[in-house]
Amino acid sequence: MAKLSGARAVGIAGGEDKCRYVVETLGFDACIDYKAADWYQDLQRATPDGVDGCFENVGGVVLDATLARMNPFGRIALCGMIAGYNGEPAPLKHPALIVTQRLCVQGFIVSEHLDVWPQALRELGEWVAAQRLHYRESIAEGLDSAVDAFIGLFKGRNFGKQLVKLV
Ligand SMILES: NC(=O)c1ccc[n+]([C@@H]2O[C@H](COP(=O)([O-])OP(=O)(O)OC[C@H]3O[C@@H](n4cnc5c(N)ncnc54)[C@H](OP(=O)(O)O)[C@@H]3O)[C@@H](O)[C@H]2O)c1
Predict the structure, then answer these.
(1) Distance, CA of 155 to CA of 167 (rounded, Å)
(2) Whether 31 contacts 12, CB under 8 Å
(3) Cα–Cα distance measured from residue 136 to residue 156, given in angstroms and rounded to the nearest whole number
(4) CB of 102 within 8 A of CB of 132?
(5) Quick one: which of 27, 73, 37 has its CA closest to 11?
(6) Which residues, in sequence order, are CB contacts of 82 under 8 Å at separation 6+?
(7) Bridge partners of residue 141, in order along the sequence
(8) pLDDT tens figures, 98-142
């Protein structure tokens, strides 16, 4: 969606396969494998002009690295912080960057925006139909597989949106 709006889009994902998919299929300009050694240098190389906007799903080291690349007056939408869902603290190393870079950081809860769901579904549906927006699903079979599928989210076992097929 960032690309469709004319931005340069850089993804961050775990592993070469996911990063290749992000660039070759999803159409991002670059994707950084946060599990690789020296990945912050890869992020620097992929964002030579810094970062203006971040849609954050992860927190932890990924958010820390992105914070360090933010341009003045950049915006961060905090959608998820999965790196901290196991209960361990995920402290930020450089929170002062929010001040010095005058960043706007705002939490985002999708269910608070039900008023624009019909419009969003229409626009997203049109993009999917026109093959301008791509998605992928990992489907686990049966309720018995739900716990395993859920735990898999924390290990990156899913490759796309994790669903559980009940019938
Ligand atoms: N705010 C809202 O309204 C809202 C609604 C739904 C979901 N969410 C949040 O959005 C985020 C994504 O949810 P989703 O259901 O679409 O899951 P998802 O992105 O399909 O799956 C989770 C992915 O997170 C990555 N991950 C797991 N542990 C990680 C860690 N410690 N550090 C870095 N990456 C890690 C793994 O990918 P890799 O293989 O790349 O590591 C995993 O495949 C979650 O944080 C979720 O809580 C927010």
Answers:
(1) 26
(2) yes
(3) 14
(4) no
(5) 27
(6) 57, 58, 59, 153, 154
(7) 165
(8) 999 999 999 999 999 999 999 999 999 999 999 999 999 999 999
Q: Which helix (H) or strand (E) holds 6?
A: none
- Give residue-wise pLDDT tens across range 43-74: 999 999 999 999 999 999 999 999 999 999 99
Nearest CA to ligand 1 atom 34: 58
Tokens at residue 34, please?
């946060």
Residues with CB under 6 A from ligand 1: 13-15, 18, 57-58, 60, 62, 79-83, 108-110, 153-154, 156, 158, 161-162
Rounded to the nearest whole angstrom, what is the distance from the C-alpha of residue 14 to the centroid of ligand 1? Answer: 11
Nearest 5°: the CA angle 126, 131, 132 is: 80
- Non-local (6+) Cβ contacts of 150 within 8 A are 162
